[in-house]
Write a structure and sequence with these properties.
The protein is about 40% helix and about 15% strand. The chain has 15 helices and 14 strands. Helix 9 links the parallel strand 10 and strand 11. The radius of gyration is 22 Å and the shape is globular.
Length: about 425
Amino acid sequence: MHVAMISMHTSPLEQPGIGDAGGMNVYVLASARQLARQGISVDIFTRATRSSTGEITEVEENLRVINIVAGPFEGLSKDDLPTQLAAFAGGILCFSRCHHLQYDLIHSHYWLSGQVAWLLRDLWRIPFVHTAHTLAAVKNQALTAAELSGIESDARRICEQQVVDNADVLVVNTAEEAIDLERHYDADPAHIAVVSPGADTNIFCPGTGRATEAARRELGVPLHLKVVAFVGRLQPFKGPDVLIAACAELVRRGMGIRVLICGGSSGVEPLLYQEMVQEKGLSRVIRFLEPRPPADLLAIYQAADLVAVPSYNESFGLVALEAQATGTPVVAARVGGLPIAVVDGITGKLVDGHDPIVWANALEELLSDDAHRMEMGQQAVKHAAAFSWEATAQRLSAVYREALATSVPECPSRQARGV
């Protein structure tokens, strides 16, 4: 089987936590690696963002990343990328034609890629599988409730609706995400497949007490303090301000803590959260760390007593799963797929809403109970072990085989759908 995987707006080879690179990058690369190791040939098409990158990057046997020139290498924000959809689609068509390639199936990630995949499906007459990762309707619902900026446009919602209407299979991370597709986009349940993401348990594994001490020394964190970590892009949707405000309350209560915030800015003023920390007098409590590869990210998870995920929505929450795989309990918002990633009261704690006082109470409860927190850490490792990228790829390959049994109409009908 030869699969054309499309990730237009961000390359799976980019460092997660920088710019628009995040959990989707991890998902695309990790699942593609496992598909390749199961004998499925995968070409991932992405937009070239630097002139020094060649057209083809050989990742491993059966897996390549194809860098398509569509617009300038730099200076285009994600909001500008819809102007390059035609150029990007044309680049894929040119590459496949000039290299005499034929694909059996298309799998697109995010709505921009879905628009391109929809066109290619009709031209190549092969099945079209799509994974949204985030949905405008769901994101807007959360943002509106939180009174945050960044509402997604009706234009994006229309494009997502078109993808939902025309994809042969919609792959989602959780059953709740399937319900969201049905509720907000009138998706046909028969066209939805639930495939849980995984965690690389070879990298993210429990550390001994000595490993925790070594990680703290490496990061310059005092051994006697309680440590809370946040890993992810610094954008309002991820809720770093909630954690900062909650930690200010913990300091007011006299708790000795350190907070490690690891991630790059995305769509907001880079100094926004640093300024917030300074205004609250937390410069000696909260440290900002640059994004880092998984092997280095392990030290942050191992150094932490808790990992906080205060997002306003997550399709799944890979950070929560990675943290638990290392034996670190997670305090997460009860939104999106996080109630599946975290077992409330067993591997961590789920928090309703984003009130900083409520979050401070949740963090204090677990930080003050070493025995309970350590038991949670042991249960977290067992829970994370049930999720693996190998299992994700096996499920995806089954979805692909089922999709290949469907016929793509020669003259498909196209209906006008609004938001």
